[in-house]
Amino acid sequence: MSIDEWNQRYRAGEQLFEEPAPLVEEFASRIPAGTALDVACGAGRNALYLAERGWRVTAIDGSPVAIEVLRRRAAARDVNIDARVADLERSEFEIPPDTFDLIVDSYYLQRDLIPAMQRGLHAGGMLIVIVHLSDAEPTPTRVVPGELKTYFHGWNVLHDYEGVSRESCHRRAVAEIVAVKL
């Protein structure tokens, strides 16, 4: 989908989830709050969850409408989030190396961004990735079975799952990984 299409969806009140992804809740709660990056954050459900728990959060999305929703939500909850509009596919945001303790990529696949996210973590930092799973052939927005794990050789993989999403708002099969940078 184009950014304009995402803007239309957000304006229509779609994709304005409140609850964080269960995987983010489960694993982010296991580590001390530090610096976090929420990639393709949408309306910011994961960024808000983290900020409310003391994380210093940078949230990036290509949709100005989504970022405005996130900023309003953050102000209403009295939390500070560095929310930025940037088209990741056009490299409008460069992930600085060795900067974050946690990076969350929830339902956004950009294969060439995975190495940058990995470099963006401190040693011991955690990367949480949830993407849609294809039945057969890889697509620009879906991985094939077993693909996601191939990006994490040499990492401490804490969670690797493929199958039905645990979220009722996502009906497609997912691939999930939680890995710690060694």
Task: Outline the fold blueprint.
Elements: H1 3-11, H2 22-28, E1 35-39, H3 45-52, E2 56-61, H4 64-76, E3 81-85, E4 100-106, H5 114-119, E5 121-133, E6 142-143, H6 147-150, E7 156-163, E8 174-180
Parallel strand pairs: 1-2, 1-4, 2-3, 4-5, 5-6
Antiparallel strand pairs: 5-8, 7-8
Helix pairs in contact: 1-4
What does this molecule look like?
The protein has 182 residues and is α/β, with parallel strands linked by helices. The protein has one domain (3-180): 3-Layer(aba) Sandwich (Rossmann fold), CATH 3.40.50. 26% of the residues lie in helices and 29% in strands. The protein has six helices and eight strands. Strands 1, 2, 3, 4, 5, 6, 7 and 8 form an eight-stranded mixed beta sheet that branches. Helix 1 (3-11) packs across helix 4. The model has no long low-confidence stretch (mean pLDDT 93).
Keywords for this structure?
182 residues; alpha/beta; Rossmann fold; 8-stranded mixed beta sheet
Approximate helicity band? 25-40%
**What does the average pLDDT come to?**
93
Q: What is the subunit organization of this protein?
A: single chain
Our count of domains comes out at 1
CATH architecture grouping: 3-Layer(aba) Sandwich
Number of strands: 8
Instruction: Please tell me what the overall shape is.
Output: globular
Structural class: alpha/beta
- Tally of DSSP helical segments: 6
Biggest sheet overview: 8 strands, mixed
Q: CATH first level: which class?
A: Alpha Beta
